[in-house]
Specification:
The longest helix is centred in the middle third of the chain and has 34 residues. Helix 2 packs antiparallel against helix 3, helix 3 packs across helix 5 and helix 5 packs across helix 8. About 65% of the residues lie in helices and about 0% in strands. The protein contains 9 helices and no strands. By secondary structure, the chain is mostly helical.
């Protein structure tokens, strides 16, 4: 919770030239959208809440932020949340390939190149075959939509019970 609260006033770019909301509001908005569209999938919602923590942990590393976040979160929130967090960048690349007319925020369009650019045909097939591809695309779509300045998406403390439930499940599955 402390790390999530630290996202207030932290941005996806060190100079604040990126997306129009801070990481705190972006995480809340993304998670709220996923809660509405997938109310039973708590791990997906939590992935939405925490997917950009890599920007806080390693400021300026657009290409690696998903991997950094996934590695930091895996021990606490489990393999599936970490996998979805890791896949939210490949999901952007995938969507850029299969829906080329789909609009990205200016910052997402800018970072797409550093993150590997639009997927090629072989990458598209491999991504689509991943068992978590559909959930990762859903996360990406919520990520793209969760950038609205001034939108009230609730408070971080409301997510504590969900985070605790997901963390308890991850702990129960650890050998």
């Amino acid at each position: 919770m402390d790390l999530l609260r630290a996202c207030r006033g932290a941005w996806d770019t060190p100079d604040r030239s990126g997306d129009p909301v801070d990481l705190h509001d972006h995480g809340l908005q993304t998670a709220a959208l996923l809660r509405r569209s997938h109310p039973a999938d708590k791990e997906l919602q939590v992935a939405g809440l925490v997917h950009d923590l890599g920007h806080l942990l390693f400021p300026g590393d657009d290409a690696g932020h998903a991997d950094h976040a996934a590695e930091a979160l895996r021990p606490l929130l489990g393999d599936r949340v970490a996998r979805l967090v890791r896949l939210h960048v490949p999901a952007k690349r995938y969507l850029a390939a299969v829906e080329p007319a789909r609009a990205l925020s200016p910052q997402s369009a800018l970072t797409l190149r550093a993150q590997g650019g639009v997927m090629g045909a072989d990458e598209v097939r491999a991504f689509a075959a991943d068992p978590e591809a559909e959930a990762a695309v859903t996360l990406r779509q919520a990520d793209d939509a969760g950038k609205v300045p001034g939108l009230d998406a609730g408070v971080m403390e409301d997510w504590r019970p969900v985070l605790e439930r997901v963390a308890a499940g991850a702990y129960a599955r650890t050998p």
